[in-house]
Amino acid sequence: MITPDKILIIRPDRLGDLILSLPVAESLKKNLAETKIHYLVSPYTAPIAPMIKYVDGWLTDSDDDGNRLSFSSLAEKIKKTGYDCIIELKPCWRTAAAGFLSGVKPRIGTSRRFYSFFYSCRISVHRKASGYHQTDLELMHLKPFDFKRNVTKPNISVTDKGLKNADNLLGADRRRFIVIHPGSGGSSPNWPLEHYRKLAVLIRENLKFEVVVTGSEAGLQGFDGCIDLGGKTDLETLAGVLSRTEIFISGSTGPLHLADALGLLCVSFFASRSDIGPGRWGPRRNLGNVLVPPVPCDCADLRKYRCLERISPREALEKLKSILKNMKTTGVKRS
Hints:
The protein has helices at 15-31, 71-81, 93-102, 134-139, 160-170, 193-207, 235-243, 254-261, 278-281, 313-330; strands at 6-10, 36-41, 57-60, 85-88, 107-110, 121-123, 177-181, 210-213, 227-228, 248-251, 266-269, 290-291. It is of the alpha/beta class.
């Protein structure tokens, strides 16, 4: 078993990918309490840092101007920080080469890339069509540590700042509400925007909840009567808003995994395909609340994917009714 003093986990990509990797960090911290755990992340996901209590430090893969570092500059940055172990969760020749140039050992990474010789400890992780969830694939990188991986779900804590900002946006006299996040980063097909609009109307008419719409863009059209928070929330504030909601609704996107990691109830829409479906990328706590099309799709071009249109707003409403009924029966509001 290896027992480093300071570990760097490399995952500089999208928000959802980072969140699904967090059980690696928390497992390390629970089993190696004295070890410092750091992350290398993109500037976009770096603001999540105050919400992750079990990670001790954060490096951003960017220079002072916001440009991505060259592998030589990244190597120097890693070397200066004094790590004695690297775990690369996002295979990439640039970060693999930077780790090699930094001289840090061990460097744990996949054995299935042409540049895997840069890693001193290679793990056979077969991602595509493996049948494993992304978090389970990430946890395979802990094999060299030989300890029990007792964390399997990501955990995030909302900050006081996030709650204060959320309350300022929502107001003190807010009613119970449901959040709809209709946007997507484009890595996976999304439910049609018009379906989200119709669902918002159905929620207000049938469930008597307010509907809060979140997203990176302000003034999203067609959500009349809803509370529009588009473009008004940074990551901490979004977490604060989500912590106040009854249910969160979205497609396969980073905010879905944020809500799930906060322990909230979520309804989501996923394609019926192994490479982008819920079995690989679904929310860990809310897999039972994922809606998928009734038939699998073998469309080669995801830009032409239309199968999610088969999930009707009425079907989504019935799922919400079922969740709310269960909440009343069990007295539990959040998972």
